[in-house]
Amino acid sequence: MNRRKKIKQLLEAHAKKANAKLAPKSNKPKYISKADRAKLEAEAAQELVTPAE
Question: Which InterPro entries match (predicted)?
Fold first, then answer.
């Protein structure tokens, strides 16, 4: 690989990363671990039980 090609490749890679950061985020929901999901579910169940008393 010659020097010019190597430099061009690096600059293109940096530009691609910069554009990716500026791009709008997808509507994909943020990942929630299984333990966190269980904790949230337990809290929701507890809230349902507490107001009934």
Answer: DUF2986 (IPR021677)
* Structural domains counted in the chain: 1
Predicted confidence at residue 24, as pLDDT, reads: 80
Cα separations in angstroms, 23 against 16, 17, 30: 10, 10, 17
pLDDT band at 9 (very low <50, low <70, confident <90, very high): very high
What residues make up the domain containing 16?
3-52
Which residue, 27, 10, 6, is CA-closest to 18? 10
What is the distance in angstroms between the CA of the first residue and the CA of the last residue of the chain? 74
Which residue is it, tokens 């010659």?
2
Structure pTM?
0.44
